[in-house]
UniProtKB/TrEMBL annotation:
<dbReference type="GO" id="GO:0007507">
    <property type="term" value="P:heart development"/>
</dbReference>
<dbReference type="InterPro" id="IPR044418">
    <property type="entry name" value="SMYD1_SET"/>
</dbReference>
<dbReference type="GO" id="GO:0008270">
    <property type="term" value="F:zinc ion binding"/>
</dbReference>
<keyword id="KW-0862">Zinc</keyword>
<dbReference type="InterPro" id="IPR002893">
    <property type="entry name" value="Znf_MYND"/>
</dbReference>
<dbReference type="GO" id="GO:0045663">
    <property type="term" value="P:positive regulation of myoblast differentiation"/>
</dbReference>
<dbReference type="InterPro" id="IPR046341">
    <property type="entry name" value="SET_dom_sf"/>
</dbReference>
<dbReference type="InterPro" id="IPR050869">
    <property type="entry name" value="H3K4_H4K5_MeTrfase"/>
</dbReference>
<keyword id="KW-0479">Metal-binding</keyword>
<dbReference type="GO" id="GO:0010831">
    <property type="term" value="P:positive regulation of myotube differentiation"/>
</dbReference>
<dbReference type="GO" id="GO:0003714">
    <property type="term" value="F:transcription corepressor activity"/>
</dbReference>
<keyword id="KW-0863">Zinc-finger</keyword>
<feature type="domain" description="MYND-type">
    <location>
        <begin position="52"/>
        <end position="90"/>
    </location>
</feature>
<dbReference type="InterPro" id="IPR011990">
    <property type="entry name" value="TPR-like_helical_dom_sf"/>
</dbReference>
<feature type="domain" description="SET">
    <location>
        <begin position="7"/>
        <end position="253"/>
    </location>
</feature>
<dbReference type="InterPro" id="IPR001214">
    <property type="entry name" value="SET_dom"/>
</dbReference>
<dbReference type="GO" id="GO:0005634">
    <property type="term" value="C:nucleus"/>
</dbReference>
Length: 460
């Protein structure tokens, strides 16, 4: 499917939620319902020299724009593709002396596009930028202060020869970015590297147990023939069967929180009260809070070490799962794979009872756990997890996504190792020694202590 085709969905009024999107045909797990290129997107301030400003891939060597010395690209193709959106930015950065922050840069890119095409409906969009929600009226004092500062920096940066917009319109754009900016990740899905606005995606309402997932695809132009090139886009993918007329939903927040917490986060970040079935009935809350004895001990014990929690928290308790996740990540990073794999296994077992079977976070977590097991020489369970993760990512990311392709390489490699292990253990360990010297399996990100954020990017 080519990005921008929106024939399979329809805008409608969803009860209690305002506008929404519904399916006009039947979909099955893994189907791409629509793909959408960014209306505008920018790289985060801290990564402007490490990530391509067109495709958002992290690269060793990037070419710098000779004019502004600010923008960086993979190659000529990415640089050429960028020019339409970078042209005005390039001269404004030169005139201004330096690049403003990511929020200002994104607003400016949106405004230059409006100057070019007008604020009405653009090709492939079911909704215009003018019509997107901004929630400025819901802003608290702190947010209003930030908005005023953003508008001021924007006006300092915005060149006098470009089309001039009123204060209210500029505030609208910042409001749109604040509640609809979507986080873009690098090609391995390891790091958030930028933020973009995708108008059609903004029409997809939230449900804590959604029927779709949204995945960022950096695209690629590596194929020799340009007809096989793909551009950077988001893809809305079905998680299971969807009937014609059914509303399409995604989850704006990680499911791994009890309904009360999710509702609080949704209210704070997206200004609505979630009335989805899982929230109303508190479905799976009991699993996430499972304790073996004495509920009042839970919060206190979470702050202490895992060993002490062991006798108290149930296997699916989310506080336990979060600590297991941190423990396995940090230990993997420190290359203490044996201990890490034990924690990763318990984490994944808990996740599988809580998450939707095709949840993308679940897929990524199972993948990391599989790699940890592989590193710990636990080839049988490692291979099993890698296969499981591969099945999930085929649905959530699709077969051509770089992460799925990485995973396929791992699957083939671990399958071969498993066969060797079953035939001849001695040979297997010999081969592993050699393999580790020229390691191919590499998907460990540095552990971070960032709080899990929502689907849409919000300025910290
Ligand atoms: Zn690129
Ligand atoms: Zn430039
Ligand atoms: Zn909900």
């Amino acid at each position: 499917m080519t990005p921008g085709e929106m024939e399979m969905v329809e805008v409608f009024t969803s009860e209690g939620k305002g506008r929404g999107l519904k399916a006009v045909k039947e979909f099955w797990a893994g189907d791409v319902i629509f793909a959408e290129p960014a209306y505008a997107a920018v790289v985060f301030d801290s990564l402007t020299h490490l990530v391509c400003h067109t495709c958002f891939k992290r690269q060793e060597k990037l070419h710098r724009c000779g004019q502004c010395k600010f923008a960086h690209y993979c190659d000529r193709t990415c640089q050429k593709d960028a020019w339409l959106n970078h042209k005005h930015e390039c001269s404004a950065i030169k005139a201004h002396g330096k690049a403003p922050n990511e929020n200002i840069r994104l607003a400016a890119r949106i405004m230059w596009r409006i100057e070019r095409e007008g604020g009405g409906l653009t090709e492939g969009c079911l909704v215009s930028i003018d019509d997107l929600q901004n929630h400025v009226e819901n802003f608290g004092e702190e947010e209003k202060k930030e908005l005023r500062a953003d508008v001021e920096s924007f006006l300092n940066f915005w060149p006098p020869q470009s089309q001039q917009f009123g204060m209210q319109y500029i505030s609208h754009i910042f409001g749109v970015i604040n509640c609809n900016g979507f986080t873009l990740s690098d090609q391995r899905g390891l790091q958030a590297v930028g933020v973009g606005v995708f108008p059609n995606l903004c029409l997809v309402n939230h449900d804590c147990w959604p029927n779709c997932t949204v995945i960022f695809n950096n695209g690629n132009h590596e194929a020799v023939r340009s007809m096989f090139h793909t551009q950077m886009r988001i893809e809305l993918r079905a998680l299971g069967k969807i009937s014609p007329g059914e509303e399409l939903t995604v989850s704006y927040v990680d499911f791994l929180n009890v309904s009360e917490e999710r509702r609080k986060q949704l209210q704070k970040q997206y200004y609505f009260d979630c009335t989805c079935e899982h929230c109303q009935k508190g479905i799976k809350d009991d699993l996430m809070l499972a304790v073996k004895e004495g509920e009042n001990k839970v919060v206190k014990l979470c702050r202490e070490c895992l060993k002490k929690q062991e006798p108290v928290l149930g296997d699916t308790n989310i506080y336990l799962l979060k600590i297991l996740s941190i423990a396995s990540e940090v230990l993997s990073y420190l290359q203490m794979f044996e201990e890490a794999s034990g924690y990763a296994k318990r984490m994944v077992d808990g996740y599988m009872k809580i998450y939707h079977p095709n949840n993308a976070q679940l897929g990524m977590a199972v993948m990391r756990a599989g790699v940890t097991h592989w590193h710990a020489s636990l080839i049988e369970s490692g291979h099993g997890m890698i296969c499981k993760a591969y099945a999930i990512l085929l649905v959530t990311h699709g077969p051509t996504h770089p992460i799925t392709k990485d995973l396929e390489v791992m699957r083939v490699q671990s399958e071969m190792e498993l066969r060797m292990f079953q035939q001849n253990e001695f040979m297997y360990y010999k081969m592993r020694e050699a393999a580790l010297k020229n390691q191919k399996i590499q998907v460990m990100a540095e552990p971070t202590n960032e709080a899990p954020s929502g689907l849409f990017h919000t300025k910290q």
